[in-house]
Automatic annotation (TrEMBL):
Record's compositionally biased regions (Basic and acidic residues): 344-358
Residues of the full protein shown: 1 to 378 of 483
Domain spans labelled RIO kinase: 65-292
EC number annotated for this UniProt entry: 2.7.11.1
Disulfide bond among keywords: no
Biased composition (Acidic residues): 324-343
Catalysed transformations (reactions): L-seryl-[protein] + ATP = O-phospho-L-seryl-[protein] + ADP + H(+); L-threonyl-[protein] + ATP = O-phospho-L-threonyl-[protein] + ADP + H(+)
Protein keywords: ATP-binding, Kinase, Magnesium, Metal-binding, Nucleotide-binding, Serine/threonine-protein kinase, Transferase
Family in the record: Belongs to the protein kinase superfamily. RIO-type Ser/Thr kinase family.
Top-level taxonomic group: Eukaryota
Protein name: non-specific serine/threonine protein kinase
Needed cofactors: Mg(2+)
Gene source species: Helicostylum pulchrum
Length: 378
């Protein structure tokens, strides 16, 4: 799903008022009735109709014909615009540049603030997985509110920001958390290569023990990354590692904590053996080496990302994990020719670091940042 920031410049205040009305209406309506949109936006029905039509044409909202009434729901495009508008208003994002990454469930863009400081915008795209899964699963997912994908994406972004903030404040090498809104996080740009792209290093033993120490230190603070691998570790030019990607982090008091901890350790061991031919008899074990000294998960809860939210997100992640396991088997069995696959192919799988360097930031300005009346509810 491409982020097309261009049209944002041509959005009027009223457009945003209506878009915000659809978002607000979505809180208790799967499909927001036209009359409610007009009411929340405080526009006369005729005026609201016209604006709604325009927003639907730009694919920021989508018309849904329900059995009992017609109405609209927000699309990811509309959700993107609402988040960008909030960032623009707060001065954290002034322009949007090139896409530098696309994960299974996220899009990563370069952005800049008004002083032209470059940052990274990560947009969560939960629900994307379902595009590629088998039909029965898809039907089952379609039963769910599409809005709930957006809600889950919002939870993932909230969680990522909360953990990044706590880790950053406690001296862990992670990007600087800059801002968050809805399903989006703005963070510091790390000038580095993912470990995945590093073919050779002078002293693998040194990096290996740094990474293992990081896993242990996290656990001493009560946390497990849960996806500690060569994609989520960036290596700066001085060789120092930076950890990214936090929506799946778990507490060391999680029921499967030992499993997650050992899996993180194992990921690094396997990678170092295969890539650098480096093996060490020394590696941390959950039961033996981890004694909890601090409680960062409590700090995270204090940040507004509650235990309840954590549970909701976890339930979704479990579901998706089961689906993706099946999907992998399915993918090996046959290459299904689902229409959506064509769309997936339009997304570059990964922009290489060289390309990234070569790319001149052709930024798209977000345009006016004047106040809209209805604010995001934080
Ligand atoms: P996902 O959840 O999709 O795996 P990640 O947060 O791991 O998303 O980011 C995907 C890729 O984007 C990373 O592997 C990295 O190359 C790039 N990236 C993400 N955040 C940053 C950042 N702060 N600075 C530089 N590159 C980043
Ligand atoms: Mg990642």
């Amino acid at each position: 799903m491409k982020l097309d920031a261009k049209a944002l410049r041509y959005m009027s205040q009223e457009d945003f008022r209506v878009l915000t009305a659809v978002e607000m209406g979505s809180k208790n309506h799967e499909v927001v009735p036209m009359s409610l949109i007009a009411q929340i936006a405080q526009l006369r029905a005729g005026g609201a109709h016209k604006i709604v039509g325009g927003l639907a044409k730009k694919k920021l909202i989508a018309r849904v014909q329900n059995m009992s009434y017609d109405g609209y729901r927000l699309t990811y495009g509309g959700y993107d615009y609402l988040a960008l508008k909030t960032f623009a208003k707060r001065g954290t994002v002034y322009s949007v540049g090139n896409q530098i990454g696309v994960g299974k469930e996220s899009d990563i863009y370069l952005v800049a603030d008004e002083e032209d400081n470059q940052h990274v915008l990560k947009l969560q795209r939960l629900g994307r997985m379902s595009f590629r899964t088998i039909k029965s699963k898809r039907d089952y997912l379609q039963d769910r509110k599409s809005a709930s994908w957006m809600y889950m994406s919002r939870l993932a972004a909230m969680k990522e920001f909360a953990f990044m903030k706590v880790l950053y404040e406690n001296g862990f090498p992670v990007p600087e958390p800059i801002d968050a809104s809805r399903h989006c996080v703005v963070m510091g740009l790390i000038d580095a290569f993912p470990l995945r792209q590093i073919e050779e290093i002078g002293n693998p033993g040194k990096l290996y023990s740094e990474l293992m120490s990081m896993i242990v230190k996290l656990a001493q603070y009560g946390l497990i990354h849960g996806d500690f691998n060569e994609f989520n570790i960036l290596i700066k030019s001085d060789g120092a590692p930076v950890l990214i990607d936090f929506p799946q982090m778990v507490s060391t008091s999680h029921i499967n904590a030992e499993f997650y901890f050992n899996r993180d350790v194992e990921c690094i061991r396997i990678f170092f053996r295969r890539r650098f031919g480096y093996e060490s008899a020394l590696y941390p074990r959950f039961t033996k080496d981890v004694t909890r000294e601090f409680c960062l998960d409590v700090q995270v809860a204090a940040s507004g990302f509650s235990k309840k939210m954590q549970k909701e997100l976890e339930a979704y992640q479990e579901e998706i994990k089961d689906m993706s396991d099946e999907e992998e088997e399915e993918d090996e069995a046959d290459d299904s020719d689902e229409e959506e696959e064509a769309q997936d192919k339009d997304i570059p799988s990964e922009v290489t670091e060289d390309e990234k360097m070569a790319i001149k930031l052709r930024n798209i300005r977000l345009g006016n940042t004047e106040e809209t009346e209805s604010e995001e509810e934080e």
